[in-house]
Amino acid sequence: SPERAAPERAPRIYTRTGDSGFSSTFTGERRPKGDRIFEALGATDELSSAIGLAGEFSSEKGHTFVDQLHKIQCMLQDVGSNLATPLSSAREAHRKRTSFSEKPVLELEQWIDSYSEQLPPLRAFILPVGAALSSAALHFSRAVCRRAERCVVPLVQAGEADPNVAKYLNRLSDYLFVLARYAAMKEGKEEKIYIKPEP
């Protein structure tokens, strides 16, 4: 009877399928966890987490660009889907479902131009330090983004991932750099510049 039915159990978070050191791509292919596809996926996941942290610091200061950061995190999910679908083993249905267009790249360029127009000219190297916590977190996100890009480029060159994914990460690092400067400016913080030590 319904009164005696056992309550539904939530699915377990662990599957044990990766215990042998292998994991599955979206196409169902089993590859070692050290495969460059999973390296790229891991770096992209770290990037999204870093941006999430930067978003929290920025939200506390009332920055209006926080919604952009959230949208970028959603786009990084799509980046991950494309990376998890190696073109060498993907069927047409897989490719259609995980394709990555140039539109997000162009959107980042628009955002970069908008913030750049509001910033003073860059005349020296800027140190990625805590002029403001939001700014420092965005600089850190930029560094993680560069690593993610370095992981993705070989996949694109091997024909395993969409070239627009690498373009997106390349443009995203520029966006995060400009945004770090913008955040410091909006909070009235002075950027720390590189000063060559005396010999």
UniProtKB/TrEMBL annotation:
Signal peptide: none annotated. Keywords: ATP-binding, Nucleotide-binding, Transferase. Residues 13-183 form the Cobalamin adenosyltransferase-like domain. GO terms for molecular function: ATP binding; corrinoid adenosyltransferase activity. One of its GO terms (biological process) is cobalamin metabolic process. Residues 17-27 have a biased composition (Polar residues). It comes from the Eukaryota. It catalyses: cob(I)alamin-[corrinoid adenosyltransferase] + ATP = apo-[corrinoid adenosyltransferase] + adenosylcob(III)alamin + triphosphate. Residues 1-30 are annotated as: Disordered. Residues 1-11 have a biased composition (Basic and acidic residues). Pfam families: Cob_adeno_trans (PF01923). Converts cob(I)alamin to adenosylcobalamin (adenosylcob(III)alamin), a coenzyme for methylmalonyl-CoA mutase, therefore participates in the final step of the vitamin B12 conversion. Generates adenosylcobalamin (AdoCbl) and directly delivers the cofactor to MUT in a transfer that is stimulated by ATP-binding to MMAB and gated by MMAA. Homotrimer. NCBIfam families: PduO_Nterm. Belongs to the Cob(I)alamin adenosyltransferase family. This is Corrinoid adenosyltransferase MMAB. It comes from Peucedramus taeniatus. The gene is Mmab.
